[in-house]
Design a protein that fits this description.
147 residues; mainly beta; Metal Binding Protein, Guanine Nucleotide Exchange Factor, Chain A; eight-stranded mixed sheet; three-stranded antiparallel sheet; 2 helices; 11 strands; 10% helix; 37% strand; binds zinc ion
Length: 147
């Protein structure tokens, strides 16, 4: 038996739409400074194992924010959508959980860059808090500059 894990999504105005395979209905919340500035809050995202199948790329633009990563967004309405490895863009696609058409079954897996979270906000859940150093160790690197 196969479970359908394809999800569809898009930006606020519809100039970017996509479908992507998202096997795990879990999202991560990143508190790093770049994510917070880029997405106007902690970035809530689902890790997908491959590239998206884009059904509209009219507004799609990529911003290379660091040595390692680039961020995809809609250049028409400004919606923050994706993060991927700049040098290996088809390996993973990190997709904003809020960009999906049906995100209501997604559950929070954990917080990352928890030590970069400012004191002015807090979440009351008891999922794991993973620091930058712990996250980078998990990724097998010592420094990503910023993601
Ligand atoms: Zn848009
Ligand atoms: Zn981040």
């Amino acid at each position: 038996m196969t479970t359908k894990t394809t999800r569809t999504g898009g930006c606020l105005c519809g100039a970017v739409t996509f479908e992507v395979d998202a096997p795990k209905p879990r999202f991560t919340m990143c508190h790093c400074g770049m994510c917070r500035k880029w997405s106007a809050g902690p970035f809530m995202s689902v890790h997908c194992p491959g590239p998206a199948n884009f059904t509209n790329t009219q507004g799609l633009a990529w911003y290379r924010g660091s040595k390692w990563g680039e961020r995809g967004f809609c250049s028409v309405c400004g919606t923050s959508l994706f993060w991927r490895l700049a040098e290996n863009p088809d390996e993973i696609l990190v997709v904003s959980s809020e960009a999906f058409d049906d995100p209501d079954d997604l559950t929070l897996e954990r917080h990352i860059y928890s030590d970069a979270k400012p004191a002015r906000y807090n979440f009351a859940d008891d999922t794991p808090r993973v620091t930058e150093a712990e996250f980078l160790e998990e990724m097998g690197v010592t420094s990503l500059d910023n993601l």
